[in-house]
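Appendix B. Chain record.
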Amino acid sequence: MIKFYDAALSGNCHKVRMLLSMLQIPHEVVPISLPNMDHKTPAHIARNPLGTVPVIEDGDVVIYDSQAILVYLAAKHGGDQKDNLWLPGEPSEQALVQQWLSFAVNEIWNGPALARAFLLFDRDVDLARCQAAGKAALSILEGRLRQHDWLALDHPTIADIACYPYSALAEAGEISLAPYEAVRAWFKRIEALPGYVSMPGLGD
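Structure tokens predicted for this chain:
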């Protein structure tokens, strides 16, 4: 059974929580307390030299980084390549998904995620700069979602899972979601998916 090293307030962990639930993958949750610095213990560093969460252990396979974990879970549990809606096997479709995975770890992380981290965890970042980057990222999402229900393809994929948590948590970084009507409608579509799970600040 998969072991999932999970921190309750981590949006990156929440990506993994959602996909594990949506794909109905049996797993054991191992809580990691960030305030107690569980992620910096020698045992956790042995699993992930970056000292971050999430991490999964699947037998002898150990994977860290939320995007990498999404790819692994979708590839292994999402169905045959030609039928895998979460991570399609066709190269151009895979590339479209990958574009948004990169967007999640760059534009979204450096915008709404770090703005929230400043206010919630006293992270040493430039709040105004992160808020400006967050608004820019949300504007890009808004432009895409005005014309499309989902980010990468015409159905939900791990691209949507990757970009959802920190976008939906933007107001915890004092970035208003009011101007982004299409983005807010996309949140509702994700929250209506079978197996969706919430976390503090999401889906309230």
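Further analysis of this model is presented in Appendix C.
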